[in-house]
Design a protein that fits this description.
alpha+beta; repeat; 10 helices; eight-stranded antiparallel β-sheet; 396 residues; ACT_dom; membrane
Length: 396
């Protein structure tokens, strides 16, 4: 017969086991296998330390902002732009900033569904620091608003001063989402072969909605989809990600922030369209041109003017300045959406400089056809996905 002391020990061990189980099930454990842009293991301690700080207790998660405007730091002034896309728009914007004695040190520009959004970091040409004069900032906003609103009077630019700070790519997603760029102007003209395969169904035995995404893999795809779900007020409880090979497969188990799954077909369609837009915004359509040269005031204005004079349209742009060097990446197409011919590129290279302008990638911009769903499901997640166990029912 077991005496009282042993009974106490057994009870305490059992209690410790129960507490451990509760901790395991209440904890959020996420495992990511990542590589650098070159496809190799990340070994740079600076990058690893940045990841630790970003995900650790020192991290600061930004809130959603609903406006576009100008914000300042000690080093630069950030200008957020949103308006109708059209050929030559980036050239006009950069020309206005150059005329106002503003030097563009960093910029990210996206275009999608007839809309254009940009986050630009500018400095005063004379001081090399942020612009602080309220009258000058007001003039910058007024002139840029006129440029951005020129192509579409019904959906002009928004300009509001804000002190909030957020990640540039995250902010661009928020700006275009708030602008409802996911509402297609003419859905019949969109090539179905280029559209990501996104589906949303409800899990029959649980209060989850299951989102599945199949599309061509690319850098920051996971970032784009998760940010959009978050901005739409959904919480991801479980996820399966497979990005081995040219195609990517993502599966998310989500609930709305109020604890409910997707409730209606209208909500389901909105989730699908918003995720499609999030994936398409960063798709690099067109020919990739990279310019590396000594930074100077008006550089972006001069380069984009040359593009415009040669009937090129910029579909996406990344402008960075480090150590006095400007590294600018542009994705360009013909003014009417056609492929850029070699004679045009050669003319631009002679104007800018053969050693400064590098042509990368291929002018072919149409993605390859996506494989069928069965070929994707035959991979890694065939045995792991709840969808394939018949536990999910669709809206019908």
């Amino acid at each position: 017969m077991v005496d009282g002391s042993w009974m106490v020990i057994i009870f305490l061990l059992f209690l410790e086991y129960i507490i451990l189980i509760i901790i395991i099930f209440c904890s959020v454990i996420s495992v990511f296998n990542v590589t650098g842009q070159d496809g190799n293991k990340v070994t740079d301690e600076v990058i690893l330390d940045y990841i630790r700080k970003s995900l650790g207790p020192e991290s600061c998660f930004p809130t959603t902002m609903r406006s576009v405007g100008v914000k300042q730091t000690m080093d630069h002034t950030a200008i957020e732009l949103l308006g109708s896309d059209r050929p030559g728009l980036l050239s006009e914007v950069s020309a206005v900033l150059t005329n106002l004695k503003c030097n563009i040190v960093n910029a990210e520009v996206w275009t999608h569904n007839t809309r254009a959004a940009a986050v630009m970091h500018v400095t005063d040409e004379e001081t090399g620091s942020a612009i602080t004069d309220p009258k000058r900032l007001s003039l910058v906003k007024e002139l840029l608003r006129n440029v951005l609103g020129g192509g579409n009077r019904k959906r002009g630019a928004k300009t509001v001063v804000t002190d909030d700070s957020t990640h540039t790519d995250r902010r661009l997603h928020q700006m275009m989402f708030d602008d409802r760029d996911y509402e297609r102007v003419d859905d019949d003209d969109f090539d179905e072969k280029q559209r990501p395969n996104v589906d949303v169904v409800n899990w029959s035995d649980k209060d989850y909605s299951v989102v599945t995404i199949e599309c061509k893999d690319r850098p920051k795809l996971l970032f784009d989809t998760v940010c959009t779900l978050t901005d739409m007020q959904y919480v991801v409880f479980h996820a399966n990600i497979d990005a081995e090979g040219p195609q990517a497969y993502q599966e998310y188990y989500i609930k709305h922030i109020d604890g409910s799954p997707v409730k209606s077909d209208a909500e389901r369609q909105r989730v699908i369209h918003c995720l499609e837009a999030a994936i398409e915004r960063r798709v690099s359509e067109g020919l990739k041109l990279e310019i590396c040269t000594t930074d100077r005031v008006g550089l972006l204005s001069n380069v984009t003017r040359i593009f415009r004079e040669n009937s090129l349209t910029v579909t996406r742009a990344e402008v960075t300045t480090k150590g006095g060097k400007a590294v600018n990446t542009f994705y360009v197409r013909g003014a009417s959406g056609c492929i850029v011919d070699s004679k045009t590129i050669e003319s631009i290279r002679q104007t800018i400089g053969n050693t400064i302008l590098k042509v990368k990638g291929s002018p072919e911009s149409v993605p390859q056809d996506s494989p069928t769903r069965s070929s994707i499901f035959s991979g890694l997640f065939k045995s792991r996905s709840f969808v394939n166990f018949g536990l999910v029912k669709s809206y019908s």
